[in-house]
Amino acid sequence: MRLIEYRGIRVDNGEWVYGFYYHNGEVHGRHLIILQGIETEWVEIKPETLGEFTGETDRRNTKLYEGDVYWSAGETYTVEFHDGCFCCVTPNSIAKELLWVIVGEKNSELIGNIHEK
Fold it and tell me: 54-113, which class in CATH?
């Protein structure tokens, strides 16, 4: 079973946070990440930066999330969720590969994400 974890950029200071996702749309419409630690903390995030952990890591053991930019075999991909699975999609959306196929390439690696350019 894979770890269910989300990340997003904090509204108050622009830093990445990691934890559980919660959206209380009926009450306040806020998108929150629940941080786990000694005390539980709720942090509001920018909803457009929300990304789920894919369950995969790159060759340096860095976790891969939706919205990450990944390089493999001379091609740049964006990690996206389509039709019930995580995929790597080329910028022109012509090529779409299952994430685990691309991650398995010998010289592939995480090079950034779509939110920090």
Answer: mainly beta
